[in-house]
Design a protein that fits this description.
It is a single chain. The chain has about 400 residues and is an alpha+beta fold. Helices cover about 35% and strands about 25% of the residues. The strands form four sheets. The protein has a seven-stranded mixed β-sheet, with helices on both faces. Strands 10-12-8-13 form a four-stranded antiparallel β-sheet. The radius of gyration is 23 Å and the shape is elongated.
Length: about 400
């Protein structure tokens, strides 16, 4: 693997940063120690143009190239937040914060962007500017949107923006990307079905919301199987189904249902929302119940721009030959999507090898992927902002 020599030299150092971050995870918008660590590292590299506090705990830093003739600026983004999960890895650098862990690899993303920052500041082998974006609150807080709403792209005159995410199950250091929608729009629904409570021995005297909820759960699967074009993708998952009753002999008054709808295209997203609301309402009423439906649109699909996908893939090819340029889309969500709505760019997946999947209590970022990720960030900058 043609890793940049400097990245190989810094591998152990960057691994140390990553493991420090892993041991001190923080939840969305609470990444105060993480942001302070990032800022201190950036200043130790000799980077002076640093802004903190954007989107509450975000950090943005600027590196000027050897030349500035191009007048162009590339944005590189890494997410910093952890998840509310109790770690079960047993590692010596396991989380020291009870109930919080880096179960998605954001510690690795942050460490790799720091490694690239150190290299880029040392070499400055580019014409233009690089803006380093250390983003808070990717895990449900929409920190990417908050940064954009606070003027990230205009304030730092970013022309194009790139990011990466680790990919468990793929060969360590391999790269995977596709043009168009790489990750899904992630919407949420919260439903309360209300019937009439009663004694379990006399169901005819009650109106059972459990029965209505069971029929709703089954009926919602028709959104994917019968309502949506089979050549398009949609996932409807009921993830919480809770009766407001703990006794074995009581028919409850209400049942709560919560879940998610994942789509890749705008028209399918609209269709999924509309039909979910219709199915829930009509099915509940058919069983003598009423349904209160709250539907919240979450992160939009992460859509890689034409041409810029090739830029990202070409840089990856220089680091790890045999890049997968047509990887299947992933139905997880990602708030880098907001940045790609404001500026052209691309998002790429970096192989993390075997082991637990993300959001699992035994997950750990694979430090062997660090040189490849750092090299990709740096290679992308040097290719997009070449010196004359």
């Amino acid at each position: 693997m043609p890793i940049k020599n400097r990245m190989a030299e810094m591998h152990a150092e960057i691994t140390g940063w990553r493991r420090h971050l892993h041991a001190h995870p923080e939840l969305m918008f609470e990444e105060h120690q993480t942001a302070e660590f990032v800022e201190q590292k950036l200043r130790s590299f000799g980077i002076a143009d640093i802004t903190t506090g954007i989107a509450r705990t975000g950090v943005v830093a600027v590196i000027e190239g050897r030349d500035k003739k191009s007048g162009r600026t590339i944005g590189l983004r890494a997410d910093m937040d952890a998840l509310p999960i109790k770690e079960e890895t047993g590692l010596e650098y396991a989380s020291k914060n009870a109930g919080v862990m880096h179960a998605c690899g954001h510690d690795g993303h942050t460490a790799m962007l720091l490694g690239a920052a150190k290299y880029l500041n040392e070499t400055r082998n580019f014409d233009g500017r690089v803006v380093l974006i250390f983003q808070p609150a990717e895990e449900g807080g929409g920190g990417g949107k908050v940064m954009c709403d606070e003027g990230l792209m205009k304030r730092w005159s970013i022309d194009e923006v790139y990011g990466l995410h680790n990919m468990p199950g793929a060969e360590v250091g391999s790269f995977h990307i596709r043009e168009g929608a790489l990750l899904a729009a992630a919407d949420e629904f919260d439903i309360t079905i209300t019937g009439r409570g009663g004694h379990a021995a006399a169901p005819h005297e009650a109106v059972d919301p459990n029965l209505a909820a069971a029929h709703v759960t089954v009926a919602l699967q028709s959104v994917a199987s019968r309502i949506t074009d089979p050549l398009k993708q949609v996932v409807v998952s009921v993830c919480v189904l809770r009766s407001h009753n703990e006794a074995f002999n009581i028919i409850p008054q209400t049942v709560t249902m919560r879940g998610t709808v994942r789509t890749l295209e705008g028209d399918v997203r609209d269709l999924g929302q509309r039909r979910l609301i219709e199915i829930v309402d009509l099915t509940a009423r058919a069983h003598g119940c009423s349904a209160d439906i709250k539907y919240d649109r979450g992160y939009p699909a992460t859509v890689n721009h034409t041409v810029y996908t090739d830029f990202a893939a070409d840089a990856a090819e220089a680091v790890s030959p045999g890049v997968d340029r047509a990887t299947p889309p992933i139905m997880a969500g990602e708030d880098f999507s907001y940045m790609l709505e404001e500026r052209p760019g691309a998002y790429i997946m970096l192989g993390n090898g075997g082991g637990a999947v993300v959001h699992h209590p035994e997950y750990d970022f694979n430090d062997e992927a660090i040189p490849a990720g750092c090299s990709w960030f740096a290679e992308l900058v040097e290719r997009r902002l070449p010196l004359a």
